[in-house]
Amino acid sequence: MVALRPQASFASSPAVPASRFVAADVGGTNARIALVESDGERIEILDYRRYPCGQYPSLTAILSDFTGRQLDAGQPRTAFERMAIASAGVVLDGEVINSNLPWRISLQDLRDTLDLRELHVINDFAAAAHGTQRLDPADSRLLTPGVTLAEAGPALVVGPGTGLGAAVCIPHRHGTVVLPTEAGMTAFAPGTDREVEILRWMQRHGSRHVSTEQLVSGPGLVNLYQALCELECTRPLLRAPAAISEAARVGDPTSLEAVRTFCALLGSVIGDLAVVSGARVVHVAGGIVPQLVDFIPHSDFHARLVDKGAMRAVLERVPVRLIENERLGALGAASWYLQQEQDRIEQDPIKQDMATHGQASAY
């Protein structure tokens, strides 16, 4: 478990009563847990901790540890009765099932063990999409030099981490509708002869369907490296994305080709998703990309992104930004929860009156 210093508060629009609750971002590698407070105008992260998922037997154990530490520090018990959890996967028979997690998430176990009054689960990239709307410009860096201003329209959030996630923010009246996707499960589309060879290698070592996230993700970088080693008749020595990116930095030719191929594929995928969604800005959410960001300007990332035939002129005007705030998922889960609270208050005159007079309401 890694404890990180609290972060400054973030601007918020919902006018809900002041309250504290837990927001969590559960990824295949780490679970990021935050104790947050909102006064109806801002979201403030009071405490934030990162837990390696593989070192704990369940999400319940992680949240129990976080809650226990906060209670020992003097936080009120009521701050831990409501939780909003962002996670990839699907909810089936009371469990969140995600092949990238080391365990299933039992919602009943969480409710019973932690004595929860409210428990909400949101798609991880839907949460990220909500979170992008609350970030400062300093929380991201531009990946498309010269393309800075975004036109009005949908925003795409995409991130290759343990898998490949994506969501679309669609402007709607006075707010935003967030559409989660399963973009990582789409079929991988090679764009060069070399990538066709990689696709055939993947099919020989798996099934005919090769998903995009099998090559555009952290494990995907490892797959690329192993495929290229076999194609070059060399023995693969590296087993982790960080080792491959480090080897690429010191000039290992196979690692360097793997990293550059990854960057090109990421650009191609972003271009495809931007075309499908009509996105006018793209946010790349963490994952493995921060390890590779120095390679992007020297790769075919942007060339492949805009190489979409008649859509080139449109994509050349779409800025792409890398989010560098690792609290994005937890912040987004909190933002989503507060939006739900605001919707419920607006639909109930009694709750609306309680909110106006600063009284908390129970659900």
TrEMBL record:
An example Gene Ontology biological process: glycolytic process
Pfam family, one: Glucokinase
GO cellular component terms given for this protein: cytosol
Coiled coil: none
Gene3D superfamilies per the UniProt record, alphabetical: 3.30.420.40, 3.40.367.20
Keywords assigned: ATP-binding, Kinase, Nucleotide-binding, Transferase
An annotated Gene Ontology molecular function: D-glucose binding
InterPro entries xrefs: ATPase_NBD, Bacterial_glucokinase, Glucokinase
Name of this protein: Glucokinase
Organism: Thermomonas carbonis
